[in-house]
Each structure stands twice: as structure tokens, then as C-alpha cells.
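FIELD: query
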Amino acid sequence: MPEDEYALDEETASFVNKMIEKLEMSPNFADSTGVLYKRYEKVIGEIQKDRRFITATATLYAFSKRTKTPYTLDEIVDASEPPVSRIDVGRSYNKLR
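FIELD: result
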């Protein structure tokens, strides 16, 4: 499997890395979020440009739940810059499950 297969585009990766820094999460979360994001993208098709940050936030939340890391959806949404809708992230998360 090529290393770049699960790499996020530069803008989405920067968005995820900023959230991870704000929340003081392990840098490993960025790679794992990228893997979940790309797997999700393979299932549903290409993610629309205006939904990338919502989907990235949902995948970060999904990974934190899988690893039993104590972050709530509100904490993760609050760390997003630019801000994303909690409702939209919740809907995307439900599609991931």
C-alpha cells in the first residue's frame, strides 16, 4: 500500500493538525484520521469541497471514540478553525459508524 494512499490534501491536513494541537492530542491522531477519512471517501465517493472540514472533524471524533480518548463532540467542534456546525459533524459521524 503506497504511503500517500491515505494522505489528506494539504488544506484538510492543516485543518486537522490545528485541531489536534488545540486539543493537545497525540500527533498519531492525524495519520489515523487521514486513514478513516480516506476509507470513508472510498465508500461514499469524493467528498465535496465544502464538506471536507466537517468530514475531517467527524473522523477525528470517531477515532477519539475508538481509542477511548476523553473528548466530547463539542470539544472537538470547538477546536475547529474555521468553525464547523456541530449538527453537521454529528450527522457525518453517524454515517461513519
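FIELD: remark
The CA atoms of residues 41 and 47 lie 6 Å apart.
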